[in-house]
Amino acid sequence: MQVCMENDQDNIINDITSGEYKYGFYTDIETEKIPKGLNEDVIRLISKKKGEPDWLLEFRLKSFRHWLTMKMPGWANLKIPEIDYQDIIYYAAPKQKPAPESIDDIDPELKKTFDRLGIPLEEQKRLSGVAVDAVMDSVSVKTTFRETLAELGIIFCSFSEAVREYPDLVKRYLGTVVPHTDNFFAALNSAVFSDGSFCYIPKGVRCPMELSTYFRINAANTGQFERTLLVADEESYVSYLEGCTAPMRDENQLHAAIVEIIAEKNAEVKYSTVQNWYPGDREGRGGIFNFVTKRGICRGDNSKISWTQVETGSAITWKYPSCILRGDNSIGEFYSVAVTNNHQQADTGTKMIHIGKNTRSTIVSKGISAGHGQNSYRGLVKVLKNASSSRNFSQCDSLLLGDKCGAHTFPYLEVDNQSAIVEHEATTSKIGEDQIFYCNQRGISTEDAIALIVNGYAREVINKLPMEFAVEAQKLLQISLEGSVG
Amino acid sequence: MLSIKNLEAGINGKMILKGISLEVKAGEIHAIMGPNGSGKSTLAAVLAGRDTVEIRGGSVTYMGNDLLQMAPEDRSKEGIFLGFQYPIEIPGVSMVNFMKTAVNEHRKHKGLPQLSASDFLKLMREKKEMVEIDSKLANRSVNEGFSGGEKKKNEIFQMAMLEPKLAILDETDSGLDIDALRIVANGVNRLRRPDNSSIVITHYQRLLDYIVPDVVHVLYDGRIVKTAGKELALELEEKGYDWIRKEVDNQN
């Protein structure tokens, strides 16, 4: 028997990087689409379809005109193929009755789709502690538990409904955290955004259940541009989770979202993401281009915003969930696990902007690279002149599986206050053959050994997720890396 | 139990084991001694299934099966345990989780149901007491930040948890002070049963004061050059490995 180490190692790596994407199916449902391309007429059409007020159309047009002056950012450590913005459909909606009154009015095919994704739309089937807004392509299909939440004064509905029913609230907060001029993708989103979730937690209310939005891309050749606006009024608390999947296709699809969070005095918002857009196949064909601007502002004193993300999907991820710590004693947190396998690329991290006194931020970023994956952490910690006694702690760890992948760290520090304390720790490690063999020798298969090691590595972040989702996220990590060892 | 015949193996093209034959019967403890570089650890690696070692010839039969065809995890589940000379650190993975996974894999292989959390913790407690290991170790990541002695004790603890049929201890005594050595040896002795066997690889005789072998082999330059009873260890201690070297060189 002849055993050659290098070949064997390669084989193991190849085997394990061949996990299958579970959510790659496509629902054959009648879909209303507008023609490809982007111009002011298209924007007017989207706005008209949604029956929007003039001020919102103006906001869109203003954003579009600004977008025309901008160039796609090239600073990220990503190889992005040219995107033809005229070759994208900007609005696609599954055809259904204009406003489904009850669950029975929803197309059974749609219900089936969300059932398959593990997101049943019937309230009695849901985990009782979670309310869901289900979005397919450009529209929200159903928001569960609206009435229960309304009793507490909590507004949780699709963005389009919010525009119709709570125009003043939307107008007051829209674009205040991520202005339409913020960046190329934010400007694009502000021009063409279709749907998303809106959430308002009134003063003094602790939201009794997890709120979540499930985003599904279904139609081909379309982009998804959703917009989420989450307002936590004084002394309130909410935990919010978003999940995303898409069918397997050979073409890339664009997803450019905006999330804005406002936390008033003593409010706390916990925002968790499990991002599992289709990542492309093993050769790097297809997959979602995920360009997302997420930002929260701790407007009031003692407020807190916490981002937790588990990023396993998308061919390209470009996203930096950030916190503007304006209130004194406010707290920003960012916990992230980002996996890049096969030919996936991720440039992700956060920005913590310390403006108020005694503001504190924590950054824990765990990158996992396998196959030919490229994983970059990019983070800014900025302490302004008046942010006395502010503190930041950053920890960026990279884990490599195999020798064809890459991990990169780009930390930026700008500290203008002498009393601030900023700490940064970084490690890079590789799952070694030695570790695998040690596990093998105790009876643990290579695949299980990798799962054990990766889960151990990511535990600190996974533990921050709401319980039900932590289990899901752990499984997802396992599937994403199924068949990747080194 | 174990039958090695004319085993030849090497690493990176260099021959290290040059024809080893060895028979281990149920209930026996064999000691393998020899100077540094004689091939002791390579032999242990071959038996455990490390793929960095290239097998060039010979055969190894374990419980009637061709051992060399078995995957490392299957060898483990069939009862082969290797106590590592340099135990590996696995940050982030707790000893509890690690051992639970291992024990349940072994149970699955035997067709037994998984242990419940409470039964598992009870088992851990028993075994910890048996091998006198600090119970705090179990809450830490696998070998991470353990002292040399703690790592070795942790190997014996894992051995107690998995109850192997054939335990191979690769220089488990190296780097241990006399107290740790005694604890390790006691652990091995307590786990001794008429139906299981051990191969104790060591450079020094002193471990054999505590673990009394049935057979002692001297490995030198990839070959077993001497096999005798436990008194051979004492003779080696007295005369040193030079004595063996001279004897072998004279024969050539």
What's the SSE blueprint?
The complex is a heterodimer of chains A (486) and B (252).
Chain A: H1 5-16, E1 31-33, H2 40-49, H3 54-68, E2 92-94, H4 108-116, E3 130-136, E4 139-143, H5 146-150, E5 155-158, H6 159-165, H7 167-173, H8 184-192, E6 197-201, E7 210-216, E8 227-232, E9 237-245, E10 252-255, E11 258-263, E12 268-275, E13 287-298, E14 304-311, E15 316-319, E16 322-325, E17 331-340, E18 345-354, E19 360-369, E20 374-383, E21 391-400, E22 406-415, E23 421-430, H9 433-441, H10 446-462, H11 467-480
Parallel strand pairs in A: 3-7, 6-8, 7-9, 8-11, 9-12, 10-13, 11-13, 12-14, 13-15, 13-16, 14-17, 15-18, 16-18, 17-19, 18-20, 19-21, 20-22, 21-23
Antiparallel strand pairs in A: 1-2, 3-4, 5-6
Chain B: E1 2-11, E2 14-24, E3 29-33, H1 40-48, E4 54-62, E5 65-66, H2 72-77, E6 80-83, E7 90-94, H3 95-109, H4 117-130, E8 141-142, H5 148-162, E9 166-170, H6 178-190, E10 197-202, E11 215-220, E12 223-228, H7 231-239, H8 241-251
Parallel strand pairs in B: 3-10, 3-11, 6-9, 9-10
Antiparallel strand pairs in B: 1-2, 1-4, 4-5, 7-8, 11-12
